[in-house]
Specification:
By secondary structure, the chain is of the alpha/beta class. The protein is 32% helix and 23% strand. It has six helices and nine strands. Strands 3-2-1-4-5-6-7 form a seven-stranded mixed beta sheet, covered by helices on one side. A two-stranded antiparallel ribbon has the order 8-9. The N and C termini lie far apart (46 Å).
Length: 211
C-alpha cells in the first residue's frame, strides 16, 4: 500500500475530501507550515499523524524547505500531495520529489496561474473554467497535467459562486488522482502524463449550451 503525505496551510478541504474518500493508500501524515491550520484538527480527528514546520522560524526559503523535506522523509512517502499549501517551493525541493509531488490548482492550466483565478476568469469573460491536478515543477502552477475538470461560467457568477462550483470538482478529481496513483495507472514520460482509464463519456462540454 502506497504511503501519502499531505501538505496544507489552512482548512484543508481537499485534504478532507481525500481522507473521506477511503482510498487504498496509507495517509502517513498531514504537515502544515502553520500551527493554527484548521486542517490539522480535521486530520487528527481521522487518526492521521500531524506535524508543523513553521516557515517563520527559518531565515530563508531554502532553510524552510530543507526542514520540511526532512520532516516529510520521516514518513517515507510514495507521494506528496499539496492541498492548499501556500508556499512557493524551491527548485531543489521540487527536484527531490520529482514525479511524486502533485498539486491542484483552481483553473484550467496553463490559463490563470497564481492567485485570484476566479476573478481573473470572470474578468476575461471565459465561458468554461475549472481545476487542474498536475505534477509539480520548479515553475509555479506548471507541470505535466494529470486531470482537469471543467464547469460552465454563468452570466450571474461571482468569484464566490464560481469558486464553489469549481471546488466541488476539486473534491472529486483530487481523490480520484490519488486512487489512480495507488493503482499504478498514472505514467509520466518526457513531461506528458498518461492515465490508463476507460473512456466512459467522451461528450464535449460547451458553454453556453443551447438545448
Amino acid at each position: 500500500m502506497k504511503r501519502i503525505v499531505i501538505l496544507i496551510s489552512g482548512r484543508g478541504s481537499n485534504m478532507q475530501a481525500i481522507l473521506e474518500a477511503k482510498l487504498p493508500v496509507e495517509i502517513a501524515a498531514v504537515i502544515s507550515n502553520k500551527a493554527d491550520a484548521k486542517g490539522l484538527e480535521t486530520a487528527a480527528s481521522h487518526g492521521v499523524n500531524t506535524a508543523v514546520v513553521y516557515h517563520k522560524q527559518y531565515s530563508s526559503r531554502a532553510d524552510f524547505d530543507t526542514a520540511l523535506a526532512a520532516k516529510i522523509d520521516e514518513f517515507s512517502p510514495d507521494l506528496v500531495v499539496l492541498a492548499g499549501f501556500m508556499r512557493i517551493l524551491t527548485p531543489e525541493f521540487v527536484t527531490r520529489y520529482q514525479g511524486r509531488l502533485i498539486n491542484i490548482h483552481p483553473a484550467l492550466l496553463p490559463a490563470f496561474p497564481g492567485l485570484n483565478t476566479h476573478e481573473k476568469a470572470l474578468q476575461e469573460g471565459v465561458k468554461i473554467h475549472g481545476c487542474t491536478v498536475h505534477f509539480v515543477t520548479p515553475t509555479v502552477d506548471h507541470g505535466p497535467i494529470i486531470v482537469q475538470a471543467a464547469v460552465p461560467v454563468l452570466d450571474d457568477d461571482t468569484p464566490d459562486t464560481l469558486a464553489a462550483r469549481v471546488l466541488e470538482q476539486e473534491h472529486l478529481v483530487y481523490p480520484q488522482t490519488i486512487r489512480w496513483f495507488a493503482e499504478d495507472r498514472i505514467s509520466l514520460d518526457q513531461g506528458k502524463v498518461t492515465v490508463r482509464t476507460s473512456r466512459a463519456n467522451t461528450a464535449a462540454l460547451r458553454s453556453p449550451w443551447d438545448a
